[in-house]
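Hi R.,

As promised on Friday, here is the backbone we talked about, encoded as structure tokens. Could you run it through your design pipeline when you get a chance and send me back a sequence?
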């Protein structure tokens, strides 16, 4: 993120959807590396693929009883995710509107819910298990 702000400045960096691609074009125009766009596209796809594998593996660990009884559940869930991602990415306008919704969902999941959880724990008196080691 700091490299993007350093390359474009804060005003321009906040308005770019895929800043790494524009950064690679700047490198290409400078004559240093050819095919900078291809490298960045491969990097973006690989990052999304790694995120999918990690999230799916966490899902499998959490619901391992369901996967032990139904061996084809892996394929079914992957197929449903593929169909949903294809439907979302088919239209760019819908895709970016859902990305805006995702930012609100992430805000709720990472900021609001932990804040409420720790506030309720604090108000409740901070009761915890006495057998846990004190850190």
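Update: got your reply. Pasting your designed sequence below so it's all in one thread:
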């Amino acid at each position: 993120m700091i490299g993007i702000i350093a390359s474009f400045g804060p005003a321009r960096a906040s308005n770019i959807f895929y800043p790494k691609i524009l950064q690679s074009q700047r490198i290409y125009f400078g004559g240093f590396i050819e095919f900078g766009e291809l490298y960045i596209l491969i990097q973006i796809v690989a990052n999304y693929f790694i995120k999918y594998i990690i999230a799916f593996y966490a899902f499998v660990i959490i619901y391992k009883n369901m996967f032990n009884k139904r061996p084809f559940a892996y394929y079914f869930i992957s197929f449903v995710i593929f169909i949903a991602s294809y439907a979302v990415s088919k239209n760019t306008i819908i895709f970016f509107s859902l990305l805006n919704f995702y930012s609100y969902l992430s805000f709720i999941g990472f900021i609001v819910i932990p804040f409420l959880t720790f506030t309720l724990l604090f108000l409740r008196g901070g009761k915890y298990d006495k057998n846990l080691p004190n850190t």
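One thing I noticed while checking it: Helices lie at 2-8, 10-13, 19-30, 36-62, 64-69, 73-89, 92-124.

Thanks again,
M.
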